[in-house]
Amino acid sequence: VESSIPEHMREAWRKYSPSGFTTKDQFETEIVRHIETTLARSLFNCDELAAYSGTALAFRDRLIMDWNKTQQRQTFADQKRIYYLSLEFLMGRALDNAMLNVGLKNVAKEGLADLGFRIEDVINQEHDAALGNGGLGRLAACFLDSMASLNYPAWGYGLRYRYGIFKQEIENGYQVEIPDYWLDFNPWEFARHDVTVDVQFYGWVNKYTDDEGKQIVSWQDGEIVTAVAYDVPVPGYGTPTVNNLRLWSSKASSGEFDFSKFNSGEYESAVADQQRAETISAVLYPNDNLERGKELRLKQQYFWCAASLFDIVRRFKKTNRKWSEFPDQVAIQLNDTHPTLAVVELQRILVDKEGLEWQTAWDIVTKTFSYTNHTVLPEALEKWSVPLIQNLLPRHLQIIYEINLSFLQTVERRFPKDRELLGRVSLIEESQPKTVRMAYLAIVGSHKVNGVAELHSDLIKTTIFKDFVRIYGPDKFINVTNGITPRRWLHQANPRLSELIASKLGSYEFLKDLTLLNKLEPFVDDKEFKKEWAEIKYANKVRLAQHILKTTGVSVNPKALFDVQVKRIHEYKRQQLNVFGVIHRYLAIKSLSSEERKKLAPRVTIFGGKAAPGYWMAKTIIHLINKVGEVINNDPDVGDLLKVIFLEDYNVSKAEIIIPASDISEHISTAGTEASGTSNMKFVLNGGLIIGTLDGANIEITREIGEQNVFLFGNLSEDVEDLRHNHFYGDYQVDPELQKVFDLIKSGKFGDEGSFGALIGAITEHGDYYLVSDDFNSYTKTQDLIDETFKNQDEWVTKCITSVARMGFFTSDRCINEYADTIWNIEPLDVAEEKQVRART
Ligand code: GPW
Fold first, then answer.
1. Is the bond preceding 416 in cis, omega lying within 30 degrees of 0?
2. For a substitution probing ligand 1, which of 131, 288, 610 has the most ligand atoms within 8 Å of its CB?
3. ipTM strictly over 0.85?
4. I need a labelling partner for 408 at 20 to 30 A (CA). Which of 32, 45, 170, 332 fits?
């Protein structure tokens, strides 16, 4: 259907197309107009929420114009696009980011002041977009920011969950989950009711030969659910590029929806059908690093993959190219194995719908896809039950079996003598019931597989994917070390530090080229600079202290060392090691005379993070932290020497307050378990030091910033296996200092000791899988070293500045450029001309 305006009328169109505000007066015109018309409020009825809404709508208008132009430019350029498929996008708030990216935050600040509002209060009205669990989802959000900022033609595809990650409250020391309904007012999305895809489930497969003797496969009689597109603009920093994040929402298909039921009195069952359809995109699964194999989750995955693939193929078909050119136009990145069904779906479209030969189609598929692995934890590797797939997606199961057959045949030809190899690498695990190994399917369906930090990428090659390295050769498996966007994680979260850095470097260019930070290093001896640096850290700590007082009622001393561990609660991340260390410290304080206590360095240990609702052990850790806090924070012997805080509902917007305020943060996973970690990068970039194990990106951070600037401890990944073995078969004893900690817990000091039995038992009775006891001594000794080092503030600030200066490598811009060069084979779009046009107008 031709829907564009005829050529001779476009002049009028262009004349009236809005040009967007740039001045304070124009901004005020826009915000007042929106508040009075779009929101139907007045100056007698305008609270901070209305001011937020008006501001967001004014900025949204600006983004949309650039967004439309970006989409036109990308269509016109007619080159390859990146499609980033992720079940999670942990975007956080959009307004502050939009204001900074278009460079009009100051205009908004002054305009809002004229109208009676403080910009911080307005920004704080926004609800986080929390469509993710943790690192994996936030990485996807950082990648979108980088792809837009670097002018790559890139789309994100995800699900529009009605409920994001739950809100966490702490009641009597226990986690309580509150549903996160976030769509009441969301100015950042556009419902595209005209962009829909019908997605099929269940049914059966009909195979027959048509009149011309051709094999026809058709998937019939399923249930249809409609996917509706919701588009979210993704602005780049300092560029006219605004990319698109397309989120699918499920609804009953109008074809399927049985209106006759309405009329015939079966109103309830008609509504039930509708609700069943809407359930698909209703809620984000709240598990981090865990897959539980639930049918609804599989439905989510297929629903989202099928809708996205249909959309991508539809866009490709408009270019009238040959199918063989598909991989020159389309690169699809699989964010973990969650979107692996997209591989099968594209093969199905090409073979069943478009009539391509199997092998021709498969070549296109493997050139199109690439897969990022984010974990080696066995409980997180997806394995879908064959009967489940058989029932829900009968045609896809056939295709998976066919892919497997031809894969195993190649393997057999290459390694004819290795019978066991076939069983090990088969896409089907011969378990009860049989399962499909999704990571193997993702490898076979992709041309490149990457890990997210050097150690992790080495580990996958030598452990879980070892056989595949033999089969495909080593070049298919590469490393792309994760990164973070310095726009949100430095400029937005820590504006004063960003400004100080800019004042020394002469501009904000470092936000686009983070390696420029190395020009800071000569200033480590500049007294005035160091003083300002320390003042900014202190101000950030004061702000966090205020937040702590407001939310927990506990008053903390901002001069104390702030020690932070914020991330999902997980045994492998070892918050238990931290809290046992806190109890150890408490025992030490109690054993000292009041004279001796005066020599100690005061410390505030801050925890934050959600436990998956069904993860009992993680919830027990949260409970212990809160109980320990109650005791220590109220012990008059301790006073300011030690405070223990659990901040509830850790999320992206709270991270923006917490991270700039840390002196030390903890990244203390058992070596070999944390694929990368990304908050480690955020903390160091904000002038905080880290204590960590030799795990994930900690290793590369150490290499970049220097060993003298990191507090490393604990066993090495290569020794973990032997240590675990030794726990069962050697003469194993719990660390004596840790035993004292356990004795105190068991004495009932922190409440009913029975609550914590499992936590202690995991270490004393069940093999201490995460090596808490093995690493305990090294951990507490390193904490003592931190105390000593912190006493010399001058030396401390030197370490912080030096570290920041050497963090250039960890920008997600570098990371995205690596993906573009080594995996996607794609160039950024030239926007120089557009920039000039904008500069003139
Ligand atoms: F299990 N990650 C995460 F690999 O946040 F899928 N959630 C997850 O479910 C998984 C991984 C999965 C994280 C890793 O734990 C972290 O180490 C890494 O920095 C992050 O993904 C981004 O790569």
1. no
2. 288
3. yes
4. 332
